[in-house]
Specification:
Blueprint: E1 7-12, H1 25-36, E2 40-46, H2 56-60, E3 66-71, H3 76-82, H4 87-94, H5 97-101, H6 113-123, E4 129-136, H7 143-148, E5 154-160, H8 174-190, E6 193-196, H9 199-209, E7 215-217, E8 238-241, H10 250-263, E9 271-274, H11 282-288, E10 295-297, H12 303-311, E11 315-319, H13 334-339, E12 344-347, H14 353-361, E13 366-368, H15 372-382, H16 399-413
Helix pairs in contact: 10-15
Length: 414
């Protein structure tokens, strides 16, 4: 691989700061790492869109040598930003994800592809080795790579945070699945490298789509610098971290807590959620399980504040629904939760990629829980359980180590 001055990384990411929430952290970390290594870095993203959370602190953390370029788009979120009354249509679409996903192929952000492709051509440096990284969701972002592949001096990494926007292809029509598999085949046929946050995503692509492509597991990881400050406060909450939506399946946790209150009255856990709320029936669930006084949502917090908050909980929870196909999902905050000091309670379906990883590494103070009785046993153990300074083995997932591994892989391929 050539020296850093000969490389130009172009990161194409629809979701990028100042947009908040978990999806923006990965491309931000990529951009910062490559810039720190002395590479020229350009980010290609969308102009302001209608979006639930903006986080200026994330944009403030961008390396000063990273250049950000923003293209227009005709997708619903961009149009709603320009024409405010369309926001109601965006909310309606969110309530009917499956229906909406079938209207525009490959997804609702397809209107970003053409303007982004035009801008992308102006970013290519003829005097450098250009490495394009398209990171999804939306999966339509990979069309940028398909449009430009084959041009001299350009390599392409197709990066998958999940297979298809957190929607199972099995839930789609036969016609949609056929188109989706054909699209994924096109991507894996021509990309120089396929990266993914989950080994099960790689297994799916390798087994069902293209066995001959080059794949690389690139977990989201964590930044050690986030944990340099001492913990500001401690409390007795069970912390639940990240966007609270239908994929989490929080009703199961509420049900278990309700059972424990009847069988073990002195166990009365309270849950504190940190993140965006996207669960329309939450109030009904809180009333049904008597959790109104024992569930607190702090809402979305800026990144460094949220890290401090989860470090102060009595324990943290990572969970996914067992009623939906969440098998390939590794929640993006898993590694920050592992690096944080409190014990971690994992409520994950058998066979889920995050659960398999936890079972493989057998980290200390991580408890895989499958029933109310097991939850009660763990909570009893935690009453006199001290926090862990740092779990052995977690440092393997520090972001700089993961990104260094990616650079080494690129040296082999390019």
């Amino acid at each position: 691989m050539n020296t850093s001055v000969d490389k130009h990384f172009i990161i194409a990411a629809y979701y990028f700061p100042p947009l908040g929430m978990a999806g923006t952290a990965r491309p931000l970390a990529m951009a910062n790492f490559f810039a720190e290594q002395g590479f020229e870095v350009s980010v290609l993203t969308v102009k302001p869109i209608a979006y639930p959370v903006y986080d200026q602190t994330q944009l403030d953390s961008l390396h000063p040598n990273v250049k950000v370029y923003r293209a227009g788009s005709s997708d619903p979120a961009r149009l709603a930003k320009m024409v405010p009354f369309l926001k109601s249509l965006i909310r309606l679409r969110r309530r009917s994800r499956k229906f909406a996903s079938s209207l525009i192929f490959p997804d609702s952000k397809a209107g970003f592809v053409k303007p982004a492709s035009v801008l992308l051509k102006t970013l290519i440096r003829p005097d450098k080795q250009n490495i394009l990284i398209t990171t999804s969701p939306p999966v339509s972002i990979h069309q940028l790579g398909l449009n430009i592949v084959g041009q001299a001096g350009i390599a392409w990494i197709a990066d998958f945070r999940d297979i298809w926007g957190s929607l199972s292809l099995e839930d789609q029509s036969d016609a949609f699945r056929a188109k989706a598999e054909s699209y994924l085949t096109d991507i894996t046929d021509v990309a120089n490298l396929i990266t993914a946050t989950s080994p099960l995503t790689i297994d799916y692509l390798q087994t069902e789509i293209n066995a001959a492509a080059d794949y690389h597991f690139l977990p989201n990881g964590y930044d050690e610098s986030d944990f340099a400050s001492p913990v500001a406060e401690h409390n007795q909450y069970l912390g639940l971290y990240g966007t609270l939506n239908h994929l989490i399946g929080i009703e199961r946790l509420f049900d278990w807590i309700s059972v424990l209150r009847k069988s073990t009255p002195d166990l009365n856990p309270s849950v504190r959620h940190i993140g965006y709320l996207d669960l329309p029936d939450l109030d009904d669930l809180l009333a049904r399980y008597g959790m109104r006084n024992d569930f607190l949502s702090s809402g979305y917090l800026p990144h460094h504040e949220s890290i401090q908050a989860i470090r102060g909980h009595a324990a943290n929870i990572i969970m996914l629904s067992d009623e939906l196909d969440t098998s390939y999902i590794i929640p993006s905050k898993l590694f920050e939760l592992l690096r944080a000091e409190p014990p971690l309670l994992a409520i994950l379906p058998p066979g889920n990629a995050a659960r398999l990883l936890l079972e493989e590494y057998n980290f200390s103070d991580v408890f895989v829980i499958d029933s109310a009785a097991e939850l009660g046993d763990v909570l009893n153990r935690l009453r006199s359980h001290p926090s862990t300074p740092m779990r052995a083995g977690v440092a393997r997932f520090e972001r700089r180590q993961e990104m260094s591994g990616l650079l080494n892989r690129l040296e082999e391929l390019l």
